[in-house]
Amino acid sequence: MLASALTTRAAFLIDDAGIIVTWNHGCEHLFGISKADIADRPAHSLLTQASGDAFQRHWASLKSSSDSLAIDVDLAVADGAVRQAELTLSPQHGLDGAFTACVAMFALQRHSSGGEMIGSMPLRSIINVLPGTFYVLRNDSTFALWNKALETVTGFSTDDVHRAHAGDMFDLTEQAKIADKIRHVFERGEQVFVEANLLNKQDGKGTPYLLTGARIECKGEHYLCGMGLDISLRHQQEQQLRLRERALHAASNGIVITRCSGRDNPIEYVNPAFERITGYRLDEAIGRDSRFMAAPGMDSEARALLRRAIDERREVHVTFRNQRKDGVLFWNDLTITPVADEKGRITHFIGVINDITALKQRTALLEHEVHHDALTGLANRTLLWDRLDQAIHMAQRNKTLVATVLMDLNGFKKINDTLGHEAGDEVLTVVANRLLSSVRDSDTVARLSGDEFVLVLVNQPSLRFTLRMVERLRNCMIRPVVFGTHQIAVGAAIGVSVYPHDGATAFELVRAADVAMYHAKATRKSDVHFFSQEMKTTSDAKRLVENGMRAAVDRDELFLVFQPKISLRTGRISGFEALLRWHHPEQGVLLPSSFLPEAEENGMIVPFGNVVLQHTCAFLQRLAKAGFGQLPVSINVSQREYARGRYVDNVADTLARFGIAPSSLDVEVREDGLVTNHLRGAELLAQLSDLGVLRSVDAFGNGLSDLNYLQQLPLSHVKLAKMAVHQISAETHCGIIAKSLIDIGHNMNLTVIAECVETRAQMNFLKSNNCDEMQGIYYKEPLSADAAEQLLRACAAA
Predict the structure, then answer these.
(1) Angle, vertex CA 91, rays to CA 86 and CA 96, nearest 5
(2) Are residues 350 and 255 in contact, defined by beta-carbon separation less than 8 angstroms?
(3) pLDDT digit string (tens) for 635-688?
(4) Which CATH class is domain 130-230?
(5) H or E stretch including 520?
(6) pLDDT tens sequence across 720-730
(7) What's the rounded Cα separation, in Å, for the pair 618 and 655?
(8) DSSP string, 450-507
(9) Nearest to residue 783, comparing CAs of 512, 506, 565?
(10) Where in the numbering of this chain does the EAL domain appear (predicted)?
(11) Which of 624, 717, 636, 720 minimizes the C-alpha distance to 673?
């Protein structure tokens, strides 16, 4: 409860010069100054600076007026406090009408707690509980009234505010704006609103406020009455909204916001990325349901899933095709998320669009590359097995036949050797196109490897129908292929197997067609052979051989012998060549010529080659322990071995495991294998060179040499072909081919080795023509590891 108000009246007399003449006890009580001490003081000294200035302005006009004047002033009382009061000035005139004095009276309304009041209302108590700043400004922008909130936000003390002008509470950049608004209030009576930062004089920081002002009139004077509200939180929210808006505009993903309103959900916002992706501007999309971009008749399942999620007000992620404004289709990866209001009701959906058209195209391209041959574009081995499996399942349901056709081109190696690989590639491409044009869209044409093609002919109603299709395939191969000025004759051996007669699985059908094709190839003409049970016997025999080879690896039936290499300059042993033998449980010891061609064909050459590498490294380890670690040992490597990849890694791992220096191993690669695949051969030799392994070309001169290619390879040795050595005549001591090859090898800065030397005449010719090394039965038959070590010890002792 507020105590009752008491009114205090203090009166005093002022002469015509504005000097206090005397005053009553009320003044003594109010100011704490006795009557005797107050004499001769100017009246305006009782007031604050601002109120004193206002008093003096009114005093000048009062001297010429007979009317009393009441003004609101701030008193500077004895206790240092500032009190607000109403000052009434009553002018006094003599008989002649001249101004002689003025009776002044202060009217203070005080509460028992010390707070000023207007009438019976506790004004200061009221304004101090307002949520923002409150102020009353005079015409000169000084403060007539304010609340504590203004002092708090500006850091001004009460005295500071008494002395301050409104502009003092703002930054220099905003003072002109504030002064202009105040002037508009006083001059035009306008109500104004302005946003500005109230500065805190303690730390210099500004607080954003929304300030208001309106003109009021009190006792003939105009004042500006206003309030200020702290809008810091609103500013933060606006900054966050602006940040989010900039983020939406900067996002690379298309963003669309729709209103949740039933069947149609009209668009309310799209960002620039949406405009870029779809081609539709914001004004063209607003108000429309996003379905207007749908591609008719496409991706119905994904769209149904999207519609169910929207109806159920839940998040969903779908991918489907839409149409851009120009009609071009694009793949849209879309995520829809519902947005709830403060009451939990779904009011909007936000969609994030990713244009994944390029990704889809790249994926499709990669899938095509994974499942298709790079040169011809035909299905590759992986896709072939998949298509053949599908064809068998379909034939089972429909009770139809499936024909598997395997074709191998005639004389393809000769085309590559005589006309080059460009001609070979042209032949393969033309044949692929002819085969595609000779079958139905439902059939499959695949390239297995090299010049081998496989066709899957589905839904064959009868063998007669199949025979007509195969005959059409054979006829398309008869026409020659034109390459430059050459007309290349093309033919093929064709083998055919039919489901379900010749096999129940894809593997069985391809194997049966392969057997039939080899029978056709044996005729040495372009012929067609259907698989028969008689052929199965041959196929079974091949399978038995392959199984025997696997057993040979498992039972350690393979072993090596080592043929010495002799330096023709010194006559000393310069190294060995490792040669493979098979201790067959039934046929005894087999030479490589009796089993390696079959191993090349069935793929067993790879595990055989690994056995050779392991045993050779074991032999090198043995030589090193015996003190002959400087002698290298060479091994022969098949193209099928190094074409599988990771061959050099396997060599490096094996050498490291046995602790063998790479320079102790010499890898021999046949010349025809290098020429067949330039890129793979160059890559292999470069990797071996980096590893530090010696590199040799075997059977040099056995075929058509590509000398430009060979001289670019990182080789260390060449080994003359057996044919070149055996042409050295004992009678004439002439070997033109051998001499030419030796000269070519030396011109390429390579060590030249002659193999299969069987006579003294051959050795003498090679030596006289500067051949570097030789090997053959003229010096030594291949030796066991024990015999090779004994030979080295004997040579060392001699």
Answers:
(1) 180
(2) yes
(3) 999 888 887 778 999 999 999 999 999 999 999 998 877 777 777 888 889 999
(4) alpha beta
(5) helix 506-522
(6) 888 888 888 76
(7) 10
(8) TTEEEEEEEEE--HHHHHHHHHHHHHHTTSPEEETTEEE---EEEEEEEETTS-SSHH
(9) 565
(10) 542-796
(11) 636
pLDDT band at 232 (very low <50, low <70, confident <90, very high): confident
793 HSE (CA, 13 A, CB side): 11
| 3-state SS string for 189-221 | CCCEEEEEEEECCCCCCEEEEEEEEEEEEECCE
Distance between alpha carbon 558 and the CA centroid of its chain, in Å? Answer: 51
Count other Cβ atoms within 10 Å, centred on residue 44.
18
Secondary structure of residue 39 in the 3-state scheme: coil
Q: Read off the pLDDT of each residue in 465-471 and give the average, rounded to a whole number.
A: 90
CA 370 to chain centre: 21
pLDDT at 110 over 60: no
Query: Which of 185, 182, 188 is closest to 169 using CA atoms?
Result: 182
Residue 541 pLDDT > 60:
yes
Both structure tokens of 669: 């690669």
SS3 track for 72-114: EEEEECCCCCEEEEEEEEEEEECCCCCEEEEEEEEEEEECCCC
**Cα dist. 381→231, 442, 457, 507 in Å?**
72, 18, 16, 12
This prediction's pTM: 0.41
CATH number belonging to domain 235-360 = 3.30.450.20
CA distance 591 to 610: 18
Alpha-carbon torsion angle 383, 385, 391, 396, nearest 10:
-150
Could you count the other beta carbons within 10 Å of the beta carbon of residue 108? 19
* Topology at the third CATH level for domain 6-110: Beta-Lactamase (3.30.450)
Tokens 């209030």 sit at which residue? 185
The number of residues in the chain equals 798
Indicate if the alpha-carbon torsion angle 718, 721, 722, 723 is positive or negative: negative
284-317 pLDDT tens trace: 888 898 888 888 888 888 888 888 888 888 998 9
CATH of 372-531, one of 3.30.450.20, 3.30.70.270, 3.60.20.10, 3.30.1330.10: 3.30.70.270
E strand or H helix that includes residue 270? strand 267-270
Q: For residue 611, give Cα distances in angstroms to 125, 616, 617, 620, 648.
A: 104, 8, 10, 14, 15
Burial class (CB in 10 A: 0-12, 13-18, 19+), 546: middle
Q: How confident is the model at residue 526 (pLDDT cuts 50, 70, 90)?
A: low
pLDDT at 535: 72
Residue with tokens 């003109």: 215
452-460 and 486-488 as β-strands: parallel, antiparallel, unpaired?
Answer: unpaired
Residue 777, both tokens: 């039965």
